[in-house]
Amino acid sequence: MDKVQVLLSSYNGEKYIKEQIESILKQEEVVISLLIRDDGSCDKTLEIIENLKNENPNITYYSGKNLGPARSFMDLVNNSGDFDYYAFSDQDDVWEPKKLISAINKLKQSDKPSLYLSAMDIVDENLNFIEKKQIEGNFCFEGEMIKNFATGCTQVFNKALNKIIKSYTPNYIIMHDSWITRVCYAIGGNVIIDENSYIKYRQHKGNVLGYQDKGLQKLKRQFKIAFVDKVCMRVNIAKELKNGYENLLTTNAKEVIDNLISYTYDKKAKKWLLQNKNFRTKDEKLNKKMKLSIHLNRF
User: Fold this and answer.
1) Do 148 and 177 form a contact (C-beta atoms < 8 A)?
2) Which of 44, 158, 172, 259 lies deepest, with the highest CB count within 10 Å?
């Protein structure tokens, strides 16, 4: 059977983490190794993990200072071992028994660096079904650079992609899931979208970034990045991709990245971003916001 290392970052997750870990250990047709990094919990999370570890030798954990989810997950990637496949896990969801094998069966179709994502069943804190959430996006490098569509808890990736991700740790990062998706597209890897769901994506008041993170809350976060922090988010991401993977980038990715990096001072690059028909999404409202951000040098 294929060996899978599940990478779980925990933080004050005492309420739900036991149920999630148990669902991971119940995965069918795979050999599970669970690596947990605790991101500075001050509740009973570590005690729960220790008790579960004593009952199951497939669990390993370590703790560190609070890095936030993006850097905590990237630290897990950097500390991952030699396995056939890797998967991210949140601390508060519940996995269906065939979640991992369903992903692996699709990933096996190619030897290229490959990343799998699936739909999710949105549930409340008591696991009552709310709705099924499909992945929405352009499913290409340009579309992913405009707006991330990846959700980390559905991501499974092969050894080839893990090796590439481990070769470079970005200084600037928004979230681990969007970074890995962008890297995979940029180097010409496979991104596999599954319309089926094998995960109960729990929504509760403690979510760091949940499905309900929208409306005014989302707008405030975007405003802070663009105008308070004065960060050109996609410019910084483009610079990191070039710094880390310049020799692996596809011709198309190089063109997109070079224009993103230079558009704030190069009129030709700005015109390319504004007029290139491929650098768009299916959402016209988002396209208008994107154009405004480019004009304001805040994209």
Assistant:
1) yes
2) 158
DSSP assignment string, 7-75: EEEESS-TTTHHHHHHHHHT-SSEEEEEEEEE-S--SSHHHHHHHHHHH-TTEEEEE-S---HHHHHHH
Helix axes 233-245, 176-186, angle to 10 degrees: 60
Domains of the chain and any CATH numbers: 2-202 (3.90.550.10), 215-295 (no CATH)
- Percent of the chain at pLDDT above 90? 84
The size of the chain, in residues, is 299
For residue 94, which of 151, 21, 143, 163 has the smallest C-alpha distance? 21
The answer to whether residue 225 scores a pLDDT higher than 90 is no
pLDDT in tens, 152-163: 999 999 999 999
Beta bridge partners of 191: 115
Residue of 12, 20, 7, 21 lying closest to 76 (CA atoms): 7
Place of tokens 């549930």: 123
- Given a contact cutoff of 8 angstroms between Cβ atoms, the answer to whether 61 and 33 are in contact is no
Question: What pLDDT shows up at residue 208?
Answer: 54
Residue in 100, 123, 93 with CA at minimum distance from that of residue 13? 93
**CA–CA separation, 118 and 150 (whole Å):** 9
